[in-house]
Design goal:
Elements (H helix, E strand, L loop, with lengths): L3 H13 L29 H10 L6 E9 L3 H8 L7 H26 L5 E4 L11 H9 L9 E2 L16 E2 L9 E9 L3 H12 L4 E11 L6 H8 L19
Parallel strand pairs: 1-6, 2-5, 5-6
Antiparallel strand pairs: 3-4
């Protein structure tokens, strides 16, 4: 229990376990892709269904999300303030611990599920583009040592009409990917998924054989649909870093 990962897990649980909640995949209750609550027993939310139809086989092969960011709650504030112009150090530390533990415990899970080990990573840039390096990319550059970065860049602002739309030309890379490359696309907050899936399209265009999206948080608005009831009935347990974001439960064998 004194190994670095166990100590980091204990620190994260102490700092944020009380207000963070793991995402859940419950058949007929949450979207099988992004883990948002769904109505009518559907398998996917409307946004993910539309993305699947529009992107066909070029969308991400796998999507995993660590926690919910619930509007007006501390979890949402965390994901906003870690990257603010004057960021809160504690929030940067919590996001860093979330990512570090996910990489340590669950990249091997993704490798098993995909049957193709992760070979590269990239961070989803801001759209429209903003000055300076995105805080998520800066964080990942300090944490990811297992595989190299495939830098992803935003399209010029003048070319972006709808930043939330699913468009492969919203992002681009100059990287050349090897045969059977598996790129891990990291997004900080999934709202409707257009940003992350657009990044997946750009990565696929660059030659990736496998594309996986790891989202740190899935935004939830309690006032939308049955979200309030879902939060009250299902999001009752403190955050557990050992819960697999790819299965939302046990790690694969």
């Amino acid at each position: 229990m004194n190994d670095p990962a166990s100590l980091l897990r204990a620190r994260l649980i102490e700092a944020a376990g009380g207000y963070l909640r793991n995402t859940m995949r419950l058949r007929g209750i949450t979207c099988a892709v992004c883990s948002t609550p769904v109505a009518g027993g559907y398998n996917r939310c409307l946004a993910c269904k539309r993305h699947s139809e529009a992107a066909r086989g070029d969308k991400a092969d796998h999507v995993g999300t660590l926690a919910y960011a619930i509007e007006t709650k501390q979890s949402h504030y965390l994901m906003r303030m870690y990257k603010a112009s004057r960021p809160i150090r504690e929030h940067q530390n919590v996001v860093g611990m979330l990512v570090a533990l996910a990489l340590h415990h669950h990249v091997r899970c993704l490798n098993h599920i995909a049957a193709n080990p992760v070979s590269h990573w990239c961070a989803v840039p801001s759209l429209p583009t903003k000055p300076g390096e995105h805080p998520l990319r800066s964080l990942l550059r300090s944490l990811v040592t297992q595989f190299p970065e495939m830098p992803l860049h935003s399209a010029p602002t003048a070319e972006v009409v709808d930043p939330r739309a699913l468009r492969g030309d919203h992002f681009a890379t100059a990287s050349t990917l090897p045969h059977r490359a598996h790129v891990l696309v990291v997004e900080d907050t999934w709202v409707q998924g257009g940003h992350a899936q657009s990044a997946a399209l750009a990565v696929r265009k660059a030659g990736a054989a496998t594309v996986s999206i790891l989202s740190i948080a899935r935004f939830l608005r309690p006032t939308f649909g049955s979200n309030a009831a879902f939060i009250e009935q299902h999001l009752t347990e403190d955050y557990e870093p050992l819960s697999c974001p790819w299965t939302t439960g046990r790690c694969p064998p």
